[in-house]
Design a protein that fits this description.
Length: 174
């Protein structure tokens, strides 16, 4: 009788730990900044990602995940839902609340996380930052909408401080 009562509480203590583990992935950005104080996401940002199915390992084409878009799934809402073309399973990805970060001037040249995704049944294998970013210039605080096309650099002129505002070699990774 004592053995039965001690086993049951142990199982209850282990189960919450198992359910709290989430498969999260950080999308990283690295770039060289010139006269940019910080780079942050706009309200209409879209994170372009290639996913791989954990079941059949089929890779998607480029798709985007946006915090503005929500899809209802069983008992919750997520930012992205995908049905695998190969095995037919339905997978989801959700942007973790509060995980969107700024890329600051001190991060220049190194990989730094922009956002974290909670992925179920899929995992990101590639990431590109194409649009939806805002660069804030050093000194003036003037902001510029940033768009990248497959690794192109971004360059503007800040007429308030008479200096170039540039982002070189932008690269996304997981």
């Amino acid at each position: 009788r004592t053995t039965t009562t001690t086993r049951f509480p142990c199982v209850l203590q282990v189960l919450p730990l198992f359910h709290s583990i989430m498969p999260t992935f950080k999308l990283l950005l690295s770039a060289d900044l010139e006269n940019v104080e910080k780079l942050y996401v706009a309200d209409d940002v879209r994170y372009f990602v290639k996913f791989e199915c954990n079941n059949c390992h089929e890779q998607t084409d480029w798709v985007y995940v946006s915090p503005e878009e929500e899809v209802e799934v069983t008992r919750s809402t997520v930012n992205f839902q995908l049905k695998c073309k190969m095995c037919g399973r339905v997978h989801t990805a959700d942007i973790l609340k509060g995980s969107q970060k700024e890329y600051l001037s001190q991060h220049s040249g190194s990989a730094h996380p922009l956002v974290s995704l909670d992925c179920r049944g899929i995992e990101p294998v590639a990431f590109e930052m194409r649009a939806g970013m805002i660069a804030e210039a050093v000194g003036s605080g003037k902001t510029f909408e940033v768009a990248f096309n497959e690794g192109d650099d971004f360059c503007e002129f800040d007429d308030e401080t008479n200096q170039v505002v540039a982002i070189y070699s932008p690269k996304g990774s997981v």
